[in-house]
Structure formats: structure tokens, C-alpha cells
Amino acid sequence: MRSAVLLLLVFAAAHAAAVVTDGLLPNGNFELGPAKSELVNGTVVKGGKAIPKWETSGFVEYIESGHKQGDMLLVVPQGAYAVRLGNDASILQRIPVARGSYYAITFSAARTCAQAERLNVSVSPESGVLPMQTIYGSNGWDSYAWAFKAKLDVVDLVIHNPGVEEDPACGPLIDAVAIRTLYPPTLSKGNMLKNGGFEEGPYFLPNASWGVLVPPNIEDDHSPLPAWMIMSSKAVKYVDAAHFKVPEGARAVELVGGKESALVQEVRTVPGWAYRLSFAVGDSADGCKGSMVAEAYAARSTLKVPYESNGAGGYKRAVLDFVAVRDRTRVVFQSAFYHMKADGTLCGPVIDDAKLVGLRKKPAARRLML
């Protein structure tokens, strides 16, 4: 009996040690490449297991930074190499995970010569579609986050280009694939909102100064920002203090989609009771200048918070009091307008340090901008 228990403990410890850790996946930056004999015409990958730690299918190219395609120069953001997914091509890696846990995948992608590119991301048995028509990063690269719940002990991560172009080499570049375990946030004292400071979220790639795009819920069944939903059709940008200025803590959310994206959390409330929502509005020091307006909604109350940005960082605080009309109330943040930086990339106001408290007795309507 004692031997059997010991064997189970050893097995459990071995499994726990094998579970993937936060950071780049094995060869997640593709710096280990195929042998020259496994490349056709210098770039086309021959054989499904030519790239270490990855399985490939379809028209996959192994691209070195500075590779020229016609008049276009291909640049790799992390290290010296990336892969390009041509017509109906995919890359796959098997990942040991903890069954029942939540994870966020982060990876960088760039369009090449096709205009209406999209990527299918799946972790068996779940999948999502990430459109790439909108470019948010000033250097042509964007980092995307996609979340999943592990339903098996080992899952297959697949990134697939479903497109079929006249030129089979017209497809997105993929680089720096990473993972982070997500821990469902709990309520903290003095705040009815979970993850109100946005400290829990996807992995930030080293030196990726363009942040991480969090897709809307129509494209991702599980949010990479635990407790928050991204509604409508555009993404929001997750930013960190290492590369941006944030009002509080280490992370915040930049509303880059105008009214086409909304940051939403649903909370339990008591109809007829009064509540106070407080939050910070600012800019992330990414060069986004101009007159911004962040909007907050709760129950039947609305607050528009003007913020004049010089693009160098800063913030102001705002308060919205409201009376609940249902037993569940949606707290919503969005940008009233689209904003663009001088290089033409989308940007917007930053939201951080969101707190919700109950006041119980009904106050007079109050909207403050501090």
C-alpha cells in the first residue's frame, strides 16, 4: 500500500514538473531552424518536422530577418528568424498543461503581401479566428493574445492560415509564441470588480514595445483578461509599465477601437441600491495626442471623461454614481472616438484602477471628474 502511494506521488510530481511554464514555448521564437537540406529554394520548409519542436503542414517558409520579397523587406521583431504561413499552412506544438487550468497564448504576427489575412488559432477542442485587416503596431507587427481552458493533459496548439492566394507565399509571418497561466481573480476588499487593476492577463513578450491585443469575445470563448469581456468587433490593447506609462500598478488597458470595442464586466447588484464606480483615465506615453473622451456606463448612468493628451503619459481620476436596476449590472468602458498617432496607427485612452463599491442608500445623481 505504501509503495503504491509513493508511486502515485512520484507520478504526480513528475506530471507537475512536465507542465509548461510561463514564457516562450520551446523554440517559440524559431531561432532553431531546419537543416539546409530541409529547405527548398532557401526558405520553403520540406518535411513536417523540419523545425525543431514544431510540426508544420502546407506551404511554410523559414524566414530570416532582412529577407527580400520583391521590393518588400521582411523584418523579424524577436531574434533573427520567423515562419511564414502560406496557403492553407499551419504550425503545431504539443503542450503539457494542467487539466482544468486557464492559459493565454501570446504570439506576434505581421501581414506580408495579402491584404485580408486572418489566422485560425486552436487548442483542441477549442478554436478562434483572429482577423488581421487592422494593423495596430507602427512597425507592422502586432502581438495577439488568445485564451483557452485545458480539457486534456496534453493539448495541440495550432496556428493556421486558411487563406488561398494566387501567390502561395502571401501569408502572415509568425514569431515569438509564448504562454502564461491565468489565475481566475477573486474579489478584493473594497472592490466589487475582479481584476480591476488589470494585473492578471496574458504574457508580455520581451522587448515587444507595441503591447498585446486582446480580441473581442466573438473570437475567443475565454478572455485573456480574466473577469473582463471585450465586446463588439475590435480589440483592446493590453499595456505594461515596462514599455508604457500606466496609472496604477504594472498593467492597464488602452482603448484603441473607438466605439467598436468595449471593456465589460458584469457584477451582482441589488436593485434600488446605490453604487460608486471610480477609475483612472490617461494615456500610455505612446505618442497618442489630442482630445480624448473615455465613456463609462453602469445601469442607466453614463459618464463622459474628457482627457487632453500630450502623448507623454499622465492620468486623471473619475467617479460615476449610479443606482442598480437589476440584480446584475454591466460596467462598461469605451472610447468615444478613434485616435491615431502620427504614423497612422490606432491608439486611445487608457483605463486602469477600476473600483466599484456599494453605497446602499440612494444618493443624488453624481458625476465627478477629479
Automatic annotation (TrEMBL):
It is found in: Secreted, Cell wall. It holds the Pfam family DUF642. The keyword Glycoprotein applies. Keywords: Cell wall, Glycoprotein, Secreted, Signal. Its main location: secreted. It comes from the Eukaryota. Residues 23-180, 192-354 form the DUF642 domain. GO terms for cellular component: plant-type cell wall. One of its GO terms (molecular function) is enzyme regulator activity. Residues 1-16 form the signal peptide. This is DUF642 domain-containing protein. It comes from Triticum aestivum (Wheat). The gene is LOC123158430.
